[in-house]
Batch of 2 targets.
Target 1
Amino acid sequence: MSETAIEFVDVVKRYGMVTAVDRISFSIQRGEMVTFLGPSGCGKTTSLRLIAGLELPSEGSVRIAGQDVSTRAASERNVGMVFQSYALFPHMSVIENVAYGPTIRGDDKKAAAERGQEILAMLGLDGLGKRLPSELSGGQQQRVAVARAIVQQPDVLLFDEPLSNVDAKLRRRVREEIRDLQRKFNLTAVYVTHDQEEALAVSDRIVVMNQGRIAQIGTPDQLYNRPNSRFVADFIGDANLISGRLENGRFVAEGLTLPFADPGQEGAATISVRPERIGLDPAGHGGTVQSATYLGSRYEYMVSAGYGSLLVSAPITSTPIAPGAQVGIVIPEDGFTLVESS
Ligand code: ADP
Ligand code: MG
């Protein structure tokens, strides 16, 4: 049975005139990894700090593990945080860093060190306990920071853009490691990023934020395939947004007619179509290929049609379609989503 680990109810956070978080509500289940995703300044870090208790809400309530913690300070919440800078103590060895929290909390020093060693071993860091943080790679320092947080057995583990200091080449590996750890320890984790690919890769669910509000909450698959707005369609992956009308159970734009399931809806509308859902038929017509770009694993075409330009992603075939060619544009019945209607 699932249990609610974190719940926000109508949470608002203002800094003077700025409303950083504008009445958001959501809940996160135990053992779930949820990502806050959105452009810079949309309120991700503030939301995370509200969970940690580093900020208190101006309105609304924050619940952790079934308790209202809205007015509790960070030290009165059992929350671990992994910062982008890792914030390891540079003059302490790895094991001293990891055992520091439990020791401060009053645990026996030897027991804390043993527990720390166990966790280091589980994270593939055994043998490195005596080193200084400066003697480790970025990815290893990241893991020490995670070890230091989970040794405290927090109710929730928070990550604020944890990969921004990790080498671009290593990012994919480190994010997989974080996800593995989260699964292995069945941690409830909240992860902040502005990188949509990272969010898709590590999350059970994603909270997409825009200007202090929640634009959509869903699994990576739901957000990618069923975005509920232009903003989400555009922010996650590449989207072709086509404007037209809904009428008589169809979506109609200049030179394009698609069946639309809900015949009750009428009026101006915009649909989103992913580049890989569009087929190009060299024997058809309706579009003109403007450019064909070879990207190693696929071709990308720009195709102009009566209703606008489309980005089309196609598998590599022996003969690409040449610029200037006429093509038919094929959008399957389940290949588009309504993102706006009047
Ligand atoms: P994100 O992490 O998504 O980039 P933040 O949560 O850091 O966004 O910030 C959201 C908004 O709140 C921004 O407009 C930011 O300038 C503002 N803000 C954040 N922290 C403070 C603060 N301590 N004082 C004043 N404004 C702040
Ligand atoms: Mg931030």
Note: The helical segments are 44-52, 94-104, 109-122, 138-150, 168-184, 196-202, 220-225, 230-235.
Target 2
Amino acid sequence: MNTPTKLCLVLGDQLTASLSSIRTLDPKHDWILMAEVAQEAKYVKHHKKKIAFIFSAMRHFAAELKSSGYQVRYRRIDDGDNKGGLFDEVLLATQELNVKHVVITKPGEYRLLAQFETWSSQLGTQVDLLDDDRFLATQTEFEQWAKGKKQLRMEFFYRVMRQKWNVLMENGKPIGGKWNYDQQNRKKLPKQLAIPEPDNFALDACTEEVIKEVEQRFAEHFGDLTPFHYAVTRTQALSVLTSFIDNRLALFGDYQDAMQQGQDWLFHSHISLYINVGLLTPLETIRAAEQAYYAGTAPLNAVEGFIRQVLGWREYVRGLYWFSMPGYEKRNGLQATRPLPDFFWTGKTKMNCLSECIRNTRENAYAHHIQRLMVLGNFALLAGLNPEEVQEWYLLVYIDAFEWVELPNVNGMILFADDGLLASKPYAASGAYINKMSNYCQHCHYKVNVKLGEDACPFNYLYWHFLIKHKDKFANNPRMAMIYRTLEKKTEEDVQAIKVHSHAFFEQLKRSGEELDKNAQATFTF
Ligand code: FAD
Ligand code: DLZ
Ligand code: SF4
């Protein structure tokens, strides 16, 4: 008896030849379906560069699969009979190819998993949902580790992962005697340091065609579509990894938290988008960094710092996402309700740090971690922005954003909306932190050393306003004891002045939004 033909749906972030679903196929007999669909391009209005990146990478990957001998049914967004949705595309393919067996590697987002789980009965075929073994921790491993714990600290999970994968280990102990070298990784950028240029790939005909298509169909989406410089194939993504290891990794640790006016890339790796869509595997990036340490081309603080991001944070947030879904997206522990200000879209604010990070976001669909966390995220936390609006913003503006990674970073890391499941204390900071780690304040309308008054840096009074507002929640947190002791020393007049300034700032924020609707421009006048 002939084995029934299988149809394997490969999603836009599953562009890995060794994907668990693809491994089950007989290339001559079975089919792969890849579909550009409005459903995925529009469920949030993704940055134009993100759509162009995904479509171009999908088209290149499909061509590579074909040349390796697979039968690929590829549906372009401009195909006249494109159904617009994944289910309808799969249904049509099962009918036209006479398929009774569908196989899919589990998607990265709960939203899609919930849909796929209903497909078997709707399609009338067997639907196998396979684990995504590109990740280095299984869901079961994370659940077993998390079970019974009140707080889920990344640091301890990271140690388990280091041991599991034997990364930077010697005789069962961490190399150098410590698990974490973060203490050494907080330097400000020196003035004269040369910063390597990011990799820049010439557009081929395929990417040019995609760019035209995106311009036409998604014109109202956020962000600059061109210039487009990202890698769209595995070969190109590997060359980005190599140039990071050769040119940036050695200083990655030292300047990991630094920010600099006009400098968008610094010593970061710029590979999150490639790992997240599958053009690179997390393990190969970890091994490449580890190898640089053994070869003596990068110091331990840099290599451990980088590996902790990929093996620690990345796996941890993915575990936390599936462990906490559904429901995590609705959490709002600090009861934050303020609407997202319009300047998150336009960048038009006199607060230079925010304006710079939003410019980078708009131009590149990228901002590095400290920009996302300590500038944009810090503002969202201190201003009490509504978590669902903040989530949507982060999910659509960044080229590497998928809900499994965006949501824990937003609700857990920046907004403390999960009541401390992820973070032991909120990442709240005054202007002093931004001034310490960047030169943004030198270019700002506001004065970072002024605490109150028209010229004062808004982060200064918003920081204290946040601590006052949430005193009941945080005053007994041992990690915040010192700051609350400082707050206690403030006079009643100081506290009143902080409140008055913060309320005036929030009023102004509201008015800027209203003006924006009328004039399509917003600037702070406060
Ligand atoms: P590098 O600084 O070079 O770090 C190396 C790698 O470590 C990254 O490529 C990434 O794979 C991993 N990594 C680092 N930090 C994290 C983290 N906190 N969570 C998960 N992985 C991490 N990252 C995403 O990939 N997608 C997102 O949607 C996303 N949203 C974020 C939202 C907020 C509010 C914050 C604070 C962080 C978010 N991050 C997200 C994490 C991090 O900011 C990006 O991974 C990083 O900036 C990507 O740039 P890079 O490749 O140059 O990273
Ligand atoms: C992000 C994205 C976009 C913009 N477009 C598509 C698409 O047209 N077809 C597709 O299969 N995948 C796309 N993706 C990626 C999916 O949104 C992603 O697979 C899910 O969010 C699960 O992580
Ligand atoms: Fe940002 Fe305040 Fe510095 Fe201006 S002064 S750049 S608002 S931290």
Note: The longest strand covers residues 31-35.
